[in-house]
Specification:
CATH architecture of the largest domain: Up-down Bundle
CATH class of the largest domain: Mainly Alpha
Number of helices: 19
Number of strands: 0
Order of helices and strands: HHHHHHHHHHHHHHHHHHH
Shape: globular
Structural class: mainly alpha
Largest sheet: none
Number of domains: 2
Strand content: under 5%
CATH superfamily of the largest domain: MFS general substrate transporter like domains
Distance between the termini: 29 Å
Radius of gyration: 22 Å
Length: 501
């Protein structure tokens, strides 16, 4: 039995660990325009800054959960903190886009060890009757860092360098490691003594192949040999992963978990909703900075209402499963989130934040606040505490895979809409053909296109056409996000068990 003081220290460590990951996810998105500009990256390379991290995080999360169950959740959690912090330093010191992408991949491995341990430590420390409120507190308090991080990081990016998007993780890591080492009690799952290396390898190869094909196809073409080989390899590896896992005595992904109705329904919701959230919020800072003219600080602050709502409402939302069952909040929350995504498609170029994006951020924040803590509580309560690590790993992996794939797929949607709208916009301007060609040749950079010196008096009109093209793609992405949120609500309504009396 974990004592009350140890529970509080465990909760504090879990909050700090999750905060590192949340801050990284939000600040790096804000830093992308500066990274793209200073390192000369095109849109595909900018995506890889996010996707190289997400790829290893998503494909190794299950391994991280299993390692925690096997060797001790605190031990693996500490290893993740150390690797994540060291990789953040390497990211900050990168001088080429290739170095940054490689360092981000290592950071993803650290995150895969860190993330499942956060919730598994809470699950092992708190009894089921107190777990919902503890998870709600974890969700809300972690959101404080997610709120402060982008604002502070954006200010440092504006006034110093994009490298501060990664330096900002260092003090959190240096504080968390000794805290967890001294104050958190070690927890192991009994009877877990096997790791599934073939499953981990197949999952990584499968996701890498699919994501590479999706990101590189708009640049290289869908008929490119490299794209076709990568896509086929990824698809075959994922099929092999399913076959191997279904036949192993102790698989990394135990498909028997999905026989539990609540676990299956919660993960179906997670897949659709986090695809919308990850893909939509990838493009939002690019719109604010490159099209709307916001600085990195203002872009970082734009999601503050979202996080404030998460902070204040998450502890209350964590109790909803106990009071009403899982189905009610997990249908209502995603429906509200869908309305928020639809509102993001309303603004064009210009206008006050308070009348353009503020309503959308608030509605989306309300929907996610109602959803996140009940969703996490449902996942953790659907299995015994001895399987908390792998359950947390599965749910986190589902959310990360959803975000990983949606950024790649939404990138295709954005690219198609951007290219078509830009071509029409430039044609309407009746530009000299060499000038129009010079702009179109940079279309893979999306709204980061640099105008040639020959633009002269046409510069403002061309910039407006580029902005309109990005907005056209952004609107399609946000309507797709709204549809996915509604699908997630439908999954909850159909699959989650009704409230037990």
């Amino acid at each position: 039995m974990v004592s009350a003081p140890n529970r509080r220290w465990t909760l504090a460590a879990a909050i700090l660990g999750s905060s590192m990951v949340f801050v990284d996810g939000t600040v790096v998105n804000v830093a992308l325009p500066a990274i793209q500009r200073e390192l000369g990256a095109d849109a595909a390379q900018a995506q890889w800054v996010i996707e190289s991290y997400a790829l290893f995080l998503a494909s190794l999360l299950l391994v991280g959960g299993a390692l925690g169950d096997r060797f001790g959740r605190r031990r693996i959690f500490l290893a993740g903190v150390a690797l994540f912090t060291a990789a953040a330093l390497a990211c900050a010191l990168s001088r080429t886009i290739g170095q940054l992408i490689a360092a981000r991949a290592v950071q993803g491995i650290g995150g895969a060890l860190l993330v499942p341990g956060s919730l598994a430590l809470i699950s092992g420390a708190y009894p089921e009757k107190d777990r919902g409120r503890a998870i709600g507190t974890w969700s809300g308090a972690s959101g404080v860092a997610a709120a402060v991080g982008p604002v502070v990081g954006g200010f440092l990016i504006d006034h110093a360098s994009w490298a501060w998007a990664f330096y900002i993780n260092l003090p959190l890591g240096l504080l968390l490691f000794p805290l967890a080492r001294m104050k958190v009690k070690e927890v192991r799952a009994p009877g877990v003594n096997h790791l599934d290396a073939p499953g981990a390898a197949l999952a990584t190869v499968g996701l890498a192949g699919i994501v590479f094909a999706l990101i590189e196809a708009p640049v290289r073409g869908w008929t490119s040999t490299l794209v076709l080989v990568a896509g086929a390899t990824g698809a075959l590896a994922l099929v092999a992963f399913a076959v191997v896992e279904s036949r192993r005595a102790m698989p990394m992904l135990d498909f028997a978990l999905f026989r539990n109705r609540d676990f299956a329904g919660a993960n179906a919701l997670t897949l659709a909703l986090y695809a919308a959230l990850g893909g939509g919020l990838y493009f939002f800072p690019l719109d604010l900075i490159q099209v709307q003219g916001y600085g990195a600080t203002a872009a970082g602050a734009s999601l503050l209402p979202f996080v404030v709502l998460m902070f204040f409402l998450s502890p209350w939302a964590g109790t909803l499963v106990t009071r009403f069952g899982a189905r009610v909040p997990l249908v209502i929350g995603p429906c509200i989130a869908a309305a928020g995504f639809a509102l993001f498609a309303w603004p064009s170029i210009g206008g006050s934040y308070w009348t353009t994006f503020f309503p959308a951020v608030c509605v989306l924040g309300l929907g996610m606040a109602i959803t996140v803590a009940p969703l996490t509580t449902t996942v953790m309560n659907s299995v015994g505490s001895e399987r908390a690590g792998i359950a947390s790993g599965v749910n986190n992996a589902v959310s990360r895979v959803a975000s990983l794939l949606s950024v790649a797929v939404f990138g295709i949607v954005m690219s198609i809409a951007f290219n078509a709208t830009l071509a029409d916009g430039l044609a309407a301007l009746d530009l000299p053909q060499p000038l129009a060609d010079a702009v179109l040749q940079q279309r893979t950079r999306l709204s980061a296109i640099e105008l040639p010196q020959s633009a002269g008096p046409h510069a403002d009109a061309i910039r407006h056409a580029i902005g309109e093209a990005f907005v056209a793609g952004f609107r399609r992405v946000m309507f797709l996000c709204a549809a996915l949120a509604l699908i997630s609500a439908g999954a909850a309504g159909l699959m989650l068990a009704p409230r037990r009396s």
